[in-house]
């Protein structure tokens, strides 16, 4: 004991080797492959917060209001108006931005898309960002809103 305390060391290797050699293989196998927990103890991971949205990006508030007027008048679809008026490359996809997580888009855009009071399928905006004015439609949201 005094030898261990003074830094003389202690070699437990012979003791450990004796333990493993004297134990049946089935005990050693169980001890080495035992899991602290199993996946069954936990539910599936929560859905990640994501949204699928479309938008129409125009340079001015006047342009945004003009497009809103055309939507209200039922002249064409949102996708048709995006193709005709949007300055964003997404116009070739009817304004579709696909699915994205919070923090992917600029702050002002995210605040509208992920707001709990934003209803799926309704046109929101105009929303001003550094890029211009957006009319936004959230098509789907998963997970809990931030």
Structure description:
There is one protein chain. The chain has 146 residues and is of the alpha+beta class. The protein has helices at residues 2-5, 13-22, 25-33, 61-72, 78-85, 107-113, and strands spanning 50-58, 96-100, 123-129, 132-142. It has a four-stranded antiparallel sheet. Strand 3 and strand 4 (132-142) form a beta hairpin. The chain is globular, with a radius of gyration of 31 Å.
Tally of helical runs: 6
Calculate the terminal CA-CA distance, rounded to whole Å. Answer: 59 Å
- Uncertain segments of ≥5 residues (pLDDT<50)? 1-20
Series of H and E elements: HHHEHHEHEE
Strand order of the largest sheet: 2-1-4-3
Radius of gyration: 31 Å
β-strand number: 4
The percent range for strand residues is: 15-25%
| Main sheet summary | 4 strands, antiparallel
Shape verdict:
globular
Overall SS class: alpha+beta
Mean pLDDT: 79
Residues in helices, as a percent range: 25-40%
């Amino acid at each position: 004991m005094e030898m261990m305390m003074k830094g003389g060391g202690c070699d437990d290797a012979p003791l450990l080797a004796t333990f493993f050699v004297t134990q049946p293989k089935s005990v050693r196998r169980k001890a080495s492959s035992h899991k602290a927990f199993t996946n069954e103890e936990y539910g599936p991971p929560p859905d990640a917060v994501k949204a699928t949205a479309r938008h129409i990006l125009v340079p001015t508030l006047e342009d945004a209001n003009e497009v809103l007027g055309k939507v209200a008048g039922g002249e064409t679809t949102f996708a048709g108006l995006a193709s005709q008026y949007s300055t964003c490359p997404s116009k070739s996809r009817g304004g579709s931005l696909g699915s994205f997580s919070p923090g992917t888009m600029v702050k002002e855009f995210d605040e509208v898309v992920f707001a709990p009071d934003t209803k799926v399928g309704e046109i929101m905006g105009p929303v001003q960002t550094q890029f211009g004015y957006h009319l936004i439609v959230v098509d789907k949201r998963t997970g809990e809103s931030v």
